[in-house]
Each structure stands twice: as C-alpha cells, then as structure tokens.
C-alpha cells in the first residue's frame, strides 16, 4: 500500500482567464508537518491555499486530504482551521462567543464548549480575556484569538494566510514564536502562507518556494538556504552578492571563473550543467566573506582586493560595503564599535571559500 499523507496536491493547475496562476503543483504533506508557501506577491500562494480550503476549485489535478479526494467538497466539510491576514473575529461577539462559534455550529453540548474554549484560550495564553470584545484587544491578542478559534474544533489541517502581516515587527516576532510553540505542542498539520523568507525559515519543516505559479523548490529550510535549486531561490532567501563572470576551467569538482572585471575566482560544481566560456552570475553571501587588512590572512581560496566604502552597525553584526572595482560587495562581520582599519577609504582584502560560491547561467537580459 502506498504511504498515506495528510495532504496531497497532484498536478494542480488554476487559470484565471488565459492566465495560468498555479501550474503543475505537486506536494505531499505528512502528518504534523508545518509547510510554508513562500514567494513574491502574485506567485500563487493564496490561490493554492484557497484551493486547499475549498474556496476555489482547481481546473486540473487532484487534491487529497487524509487520502480522500476533496475536489468539489465544500469548505465546511474539509475539517479545516483557518486564520487570515485580517482579523476575522465577529465584532459583536465576546472572545468566548467568537471561539465557541464553530463548536456551536457543530451542536457540541454547552459544558463541553465551555471546557474546550477554556482550554484553547489557555493554549494561546489569554484565558482572562473571555469576556472582552474584539475592539478591546490589541492586534496581537486578536490574532491569537483567531488562532484559538481555528484550533478549537481540532481541525485536521490548519491554514494560515499571512497571519502576522498586520502586526508591527516586535509583535510579529512574539506571535511567530507563539505559533511555532503551539504548532509543535498540538502537532496539527499546518500550511503557512508568507512572503517573508525569515518567517518561512523560522516556522517550517519544509518550504515550498513559488515563482509565477510554479514550484521552484521544495525542501527543508537548510536545503533551501544552502542548496538552492535556482538563482531565484538563492536570491529570494537572504542577501547575496552578485558578480558577473565567465566559466573558465572545468576540472572534475573544481570550477574556474573569470569575472567581467578580470579577477580569477574558484568555485565548486553543484550539478548545474555549465560549459567553458558560458556567461554566468556568481554569488556569495555576505556572512561567508571574511575581511582582512593583511593579505596573508586571506587564505580561504578566493582573495580579492578592495576599498571600504561604508560601515553600518546593525546590532548583532556590522555590515561593510567594499568596492572591488567591478562591483560593491556587502560583507557581514562581527559587531565592532570602531575600527580605524575598517573605516571608509581603508584598503582591505576579502576572502571566501570556493564551497560558498553559487554559480548560475547568466540571465539573457544580463548576458
Ligand atoms: P500576495 O502575496 O500578493 O497575496 P499571492 O502569491 O498570494 O500574492 P495570488 O493571490 O495567489 O498570489 O495571485 C496569483 C495571481 O492570480 C496574481 O497574478 C493575481 O492577480 C491573480 N488572481 C488572483 N485571484 C484572481 C481572480 N479572482 N481573478 C483573476 N486573477 C486573479
């Protein structure tokens, strides 16, 4: 017998008019997983979530929840809990009534409703708010109540559509921690839609990166960050420096590159088919580059001379912009209060390992 998944998308496609907004979407989600749909605005995240929720029907493909085909099954028969970007609480009902709503619809007995609402309010750490109205709550509290309301019916699948995006940065982080704790405690299979890469890395067991309705990569946060399947994935997640160049020597695992500015760089082959003479974009992340005043210290394999342009203290780290002639590189170093040797105008050496270089065929628009 084939393995059973909590959710399966098989070749799902959705068109609006002639516009294909979700194309050949295949995904299998195991019980208890938290999966993020990540991608820029308009890439099809919400459309896919809406098909899983039953608000939209796919034009092609099959959608299975707990092994049952859901195409055509109304939303209220899919055993879902949902939380959206905007707080969707009923303003004329108290917190208790809001959370109890789904249970009342299901004709659950009153004493059980009281017990289950009480429990779920404990879970979101707002047990003392039961008698308040939504307008008497802060944005973060409202969103926690929305989560409580989604969880109280013990759904088999929790769908979260940008649930944190209306909150300020501090609250966002707080609620993000809270949601991760809750998700792990309850173990409910969860799909989390976000355009915020850090949120996706933080929350998920696996991330689905989408671009223009197509799945670019499905992988663990580590895989997505360290083994990007495409240039889009590499540049969408985290910061990276780009240098334009050409493939020189290819020998086994080793890749020799020449930048358009005439520097020789080393990289390693990562399975992408590249040919000698091919124009490429070369990437290295700011945190993988070391900065030195003495050239002898630069011994990781790629050594480039530059001049410091800008130094910005950012709390946990300091960012230096270094002009290397062809381009400006951003380098992330340990926090420093003041270092005369790293002041604007200072000559420095940058140094990074061939293992930390990502090479992608240059896009036609840049070639
Ligand atoms: P965002 O982060 O901005 O919400 P998204 O990744 O969730 O973006 P979707 O809302 O799924 O993107 O939209 C995908 C594409 O489908 C967009 O180009 C959008 O304009 C289009 N689209 C969405 N809903 C409709 C509709 N009802 N009719 C026509 N086009 C639509």
Automatic annotation (TrEMBL):
Q: Give EC number(s), comma-separated.
A: 7.6.2.11
Provide the reaction this enzyme catalyses: a quaternary ammonium(out) + ATP + H2O = a quaternary ammonium(in) + ADP + phosphate + H(+); ATP + H2O + polyamine-[polyamine-binding protein]Side 1 = ADP + phosphate + polyamineSide 2 + [polyamine-binding protein]Side 1
Which Gene3D superfamilies does this chain map to?
Nucleic acid-binding proteins, P-loop containing nucleotide triphosphate hydrolases
Question: What keywords does the record list, in alphabetical order?
Answer: ATP-binding, Cell membrane, Membrane, Nucleotide-binding, Translocase, Transport
Q: Which GO terms describe its molecular function?
A: ABC-type polyamine transporter activity; ABC-type quaternary ammonium compound transporting activity; ATP binding; ATP hydrolysis activity
Give every ABC transporter domain span.
7-237
User: Cellular component terms, GO, for this chain's entry?
Assistant: ATP-binding cassette (ABC) transporter complex
Q: Which Pfam families match?
A: ABC_tran, TOBE_2
| InterPro entries with a match to the protein in the record | AAA+_ATPase (IPR003593), ABC_SmlMolc_Importer (IPR050093), ABC_transporter-like_ATP-bd (IPR003439), ABC_transporter-like_CS (IPR017871), Mo/tungstate-bd_C_term_dom (IPR008995), NA-bd_OB-fold (IPR012340), P-loop_NTPase (IPR027417), PotA-like (IPR005893)
NCBIfam families from the UniProt entry:
potA
State the oligomer form and interacting partners.
The complex is composed of two ATP-binding proteins (PotA), two transmembrane proteins (PotB and PotC) and a solute-binding protein (PotD). The complex is composed of two ATP-binding proteins (OpuCA), two transmembrane proteins (OpuCB and OpuCD) and a solute-binding protein (OpuCC).
Annotated function? Part of the ABC transporter complex PotABCD involved in spermidine/putrescine import. Responsible for energy coupling to the transport system.
- UniProt family annotation: Belongs to the ABC transporter superfamily. Spermidine/putrescine importer (TC 3.A.1.11.1) family.
* Protein's UniProt name: Spermidine/putrescine import ATP-binding protein PotA
Organism, by scientific name, is Paenibacillus aurantius
This protein's gene is called potA
């Amino acid at each position: 017998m084939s393995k059973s998944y909590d959710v399966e998308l098989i070749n799902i496609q959705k068109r609006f008019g002639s516009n294909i907004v979700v194309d050949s979407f295949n995904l299998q989600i195991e019980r208890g997983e938290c999966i993020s749909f990540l991608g820029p605005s308009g890439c099809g995240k919400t459309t896919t979530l809406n098909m899983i929720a039953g608000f939209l029907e796919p034009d092609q493909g099959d959608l299975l929840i707990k092994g049952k085909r859901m195409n055509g099954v109304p939303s209220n028969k899919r055993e879902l809990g949902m939380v959206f970007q905007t707080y969707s609480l009923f303003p004329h009902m108290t917190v208790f009534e809001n959370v109890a709503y789904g249970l009342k619809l299901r004709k659950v007995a009153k004493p059980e409703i009281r017990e289950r609402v009480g429990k779920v309010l404990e879970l979101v750490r707002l047990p003392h708010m039961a008698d308040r109205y939504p307008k008497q709550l802060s944005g973060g509290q409202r969103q926690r109540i929305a989560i409580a309301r989604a969880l109280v019916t013990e759904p088999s699948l929790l769908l979260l559509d940008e649930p944190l995006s209306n909150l300020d940065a501090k609250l966002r982080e707080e609620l993000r921690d809270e949601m991760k704790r809750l998700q792990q405690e309850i173990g409910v299979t969860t799909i989390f839609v976000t355009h915020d890469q850090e949120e996706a890395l933080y929350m998920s067991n696996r991330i689905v990166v989408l671009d223009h309705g197509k799945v670019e990569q499905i992988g663990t946060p580590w895989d997505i960050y360290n083994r990007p399947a495409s240039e889009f994935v590499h540049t969408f997640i985290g910061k990276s420096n780009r240098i334009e160049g050409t493939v020189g020597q290819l020998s086994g695992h080793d890749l020799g590159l020449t930048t358009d500015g005439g520097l020789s760089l080393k990289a390693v082959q990562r399975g992408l088919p590249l040919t000698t003479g091919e124009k490429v974009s070369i990437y290295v992340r700011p945190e993988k580059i070391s900065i030195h005043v003495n050239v002898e210290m630069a011994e990781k394999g790629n050594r480039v001379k530059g001049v410091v342009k800008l130094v910005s203290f950012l709390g946990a780290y300091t960012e230096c912009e270094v002009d290397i002639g062809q381009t400006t590189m951003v380098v992330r170093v340990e926090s420093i209060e003041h270092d005369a040797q790293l002041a604007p105008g200072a000559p420095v050496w940058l140094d990074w390992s061939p293992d930390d270089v990502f090479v992608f065929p240059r896009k036609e628009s840049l070639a």
